[in-house]
Amino acid sequence: MTIALQTDAGLQAQLELARQVQLRLLPDRRCCFSDWEVAFSYESAGYVSGDYVDLIPAGADVFYFALGDVSGKGVAASMLMSHLHATLRTLLPSNRTIEEVVTTASGTFCQSALPAQFATLVLGKADRSGNVELVNAGHNPVLLVEGAEVEIIAAASLPLGMFCSTDFTSVRRSVSPESTLFLYSDGITESTDGTGDEFDQNRLAETLLQSRNLLPSELLETIQRTLIGFTNDAKPSDDRTMLALRWSPKGI
């Protein structure tokens, strides 16, 4: 075997190891939270991903959820994703507000990243009464499906790492029973068909409405099938991550 082939094989082995480490960082798929049904999907376009998804319990009545996307692709993005994961896992659960948590995480990220690197992030907190608080730091809008309506909860703050000192603003919602919060990375809406048209937010919202009575796991499977049909099962050019949270209070 030539030195070049040995080097290539070694790099492939290291990338596969990095991929396995990233997969270990994913939250437990068996996670369940009082009165909330939760599911996520995570599909990397390459060996490693810059997408981030997490679920963090905070006692019997409260949990945190997060979905983000580090700028760029490849190993550098995956390293920063792992750094963001570790930072938030260290900070949560906490008595601090989620605005304060994101502010601290952004400052830490800024000190670790190169000047052109940043991360978009949605960090949320939900309780068993259907109360939700969100910080959207430059990420795609969160979609809230209630009845026959989809509310678009847009970003209210800059991405993490844009500036080392940044304030972040949260929004609050009290959701109705059987409502669904949907978070996603731009690999979902920027998937293209054979003509170059994007799946886009409108198609996603329409799919959510048509599937609003499904459980979160069934909803994600439906969106995945819809994307396969739309893209003609083409290999994704970007990471695709989704998180669905449905409030189903017992006794109502």
UniProtKB/TrEMBL annotation:
Protein name listed in UniProt: PP2C family protein-serine/threonine phosphatase
Superkingdom assignment: Bacteria
Keyword Hydrolase: yes
Enzymatic class: hydrolase
Gene3D superfamilies xref list: PPM-type phosphatase domain
E.C. numbers: 3.1.3.16
Keywords in alphabetical order: Hydrolase, Plasmid
Residue ranges occupied by any PPM-type phosphatase domain in the UniProt entry: 33-247
InterPro entries associated with the record: Bact_Sigma-Reg, PPM-type-like_dom_sf, PPM-type_phosphatase-like_dom
Residue stretches in coiled coil: none
GO molecular function, one term: protein serine/threonine phosphatase activity
